[in-house]
Amino acid sequence: MFKNYLKIAWRNLMKRKIFTAINILGLAIGFGSSILIYLFLSHHLSYDNFHENSDRIYRFVTEEHRDNIDYEATVPPAFANEFRQNYNYAEKVAKLAIWENTQLDFELNQQKIQVKEDMLFAEADFFEIFNYPLKEHISTRSLEEPNTAYVTVDMAQKLFGNSNPLGQTMRLDNMETIEVIGVLENFPRATMLEEGLIISFETLKKLDDFAGTEVWTGMTTSLECFALLKPNQDVDAIETALLELPKKHRSTSKNRHEYQLQPLADVHFNPLYGGVDPTLLWAFGIIGLFLISIGCINFINISTAQAFYRSKEIGIRKVLGSFKNHLFWQFLSETFVISVFALGIGVIFASLMLPSFNSLFQTELYMESLLSVQFFGFVALLLILISFLSGSYPGILMSRIVPVLALKGKLNHNDTGGSSTRKVLVVAQFAISIILIAATLVISRQIDYAINTDLGFDKESIVMVKIPKELEAVQLESLTNRLDYISGVEDVTACLSSPGGSENRWGTGVKYHNRPEYEEFSMQVKLADLNYLNTFDLELVAGRNYFKADSITEVLVNEKFGKKIGVNNPEELLGKKFEANGGYVKASIVGVVKDFHDGDFTQEISPIFMAQNPQWYDEIALKINTQNISTTLTQIKGTWKDTFKDYIYEYNFLDDRVEEQYEEEQRYLSLSKIFSALAILIGCLGIYGLILFYVGQRTKEIGIRKVLGSGVANILALFTADFFKLILIAGVFATPISWYLMEQWLQGYTYRTEIHWWIFAVAILSIMTITLITISYQTIKAAITNPIKSLRTE
Questions:
Q1: Vertex 709 angle, CA 707 and 711, to 5°
Q2: pTM beyond 0.70
Q3: pLDDT digits (tens, 9 = 90+) for 259-299
Q4: Which of these, 495, 379, 450, 397, lies nearest to 661 by C-alpha position?
Q5: Are strands 523-527 and 608-611 parallel, antiparallel or unpaired?
Q6: Where does the record place the ABC3 transporter permease C-terminal domain (predicted)?
């Protein structure tokens, strides 16, 4: 019987090819989008679930209690050894440090190669905690030795080609020679490790005066600490025991630490500690549900609208002995056939869109991942749900048709029902589209506001050039002087980091003047030479710039520092004593700088101090003339390479850095634009199908109206008026919903744009315009048809 249902379903669908195509295309877009979302969600949900003892693996994190609470995915460098030696909770403890974009020099086929790679420094026990298999290694060597390294298979291929990587040596940042002693299997895509070069932690002790030492006085976000706990440990009890460590090692600090254990399963999903915001995943799931729902709405609307024209078929079936359940299953089988075709097209759509999707979200998803039991289960469930949700209501509606009335042709459209339901569903379609358009406008305005608002410093035409870590002050001064002589260069400064748009952030405690204790808050450090203010056009509101000196004796602070300590007049800060970084900095305040945004707009402006210290400078900033930029950049590179022959030259523009701070928001915006367009496209397909039906249903009425003098505009208004009413009703429901959602999203910003009423008006007018365009062709075509033909229509 099921075979017969499918055969009849196929014949019925072929009789109404346009409506069938509309239903299939609408559902196909929904299916394709759902497949992409499935790949995305399953990728994120599978993070680090392949480790043998993943339920016992924890990362140590820190809650910093000052004037507010900060969350850091790290602990002081001395924490690991303290926990390892004096506590009996863990089987293994290991530290991990991350260095990004670091130079490697080596020889390959008698050629000198220079590359920049991200790398990890790991203690040997790290590979006892995590299951990253070692493929081959030199059996007599160990990662416990300094200057040794493991590489993954892909990294070995990238660096050494087809040569045997074992025994190969590399020069790390022109400081240490590293030998490859092992090759690891490639990391799974869904893991926290992305780098394919892992160097022994003992090597870091030679390179980093802070992360590689045993200190409690600070933390760096590049350092992480993991533990494999013994079975059946009480995490709360461990955290309680760790409360004694700050009292023991940091008793004089106002920056009160609480060390906590973060489960491995939480590492990828906790935005407080740098993980993915689960809101994004929820947004994906909800949008996928929206798109599928709109496709189902199209099917229901078109099916119920056609019920009148299938009434005789239903009447004959009932007279010949069909029961309601037979008719119900017949309509469900039609839905199933459409869903199967839509699924096939949806898979093709997803495969075509996947490269762009990967590029947008910086992922590596593959269609091959769909060849799994989980995916086939997901598809089967989706097919059943879509077929049932789309086909059950039209099936119930049509099975209720009275056969006598149907066969006598005495049914009207009210007898077939579904009119009110169609209106409700169309309103739901419009509401979803209005919400997505409004969200797109709000996100776009916030990004534009963040990028184009005055940040308090000049970011235009500023080139940031990296300099090597080990650099003599005399050598640096010589380089900046030579760069300043280039005709296209207007200003030059050497610094630790730019005023904003930099990930290189250094926070420290501060003691003001004669106050006996350090302040509750932390200050951001901006180390730079005397020309920093001029280059970035920073404004002094009181005092002067610091003078050139061999040590830090003078500092500048910003206005926010004065507000934090309760001094509102900047002049009152001048000449006051200033101590920071545990007493390393002892100076006088000689100037106050106007506040500028040192972070993105999710963060408040920080209290900041500036001082000069050439040994900590990491970059050179150059303000260049916008004419002949390419010539100027070439001259800058030539001058830089004359000084640093053995280093790779790299630069970027500061305004690009500022924009990069909002990459996640840009993804939200792109996501909103894409899915808004898809929702509108699916909705337009449904509206087009309905207008085809309505025009066919009211052909005689159009002819009569034309005979009585109605013009094309009158007839167009006749059909658009009903849709516009539904759009306005949808706007009434969508406006508060979208306002609430975007208000919640904007709560994450300290500095934010406003949500104005016109945003929702634009969204509603956009839907009206798109709807008008969608229905105009068929309506105008019917309106200009000869009324004689219309009146002869049966």
A1: 110
A2: yes
A3: 999 999 999 888 877 888 887 778 778 888 888 888 877 77
A4: 450
A5: parallel
A6: 286-401, 674-787
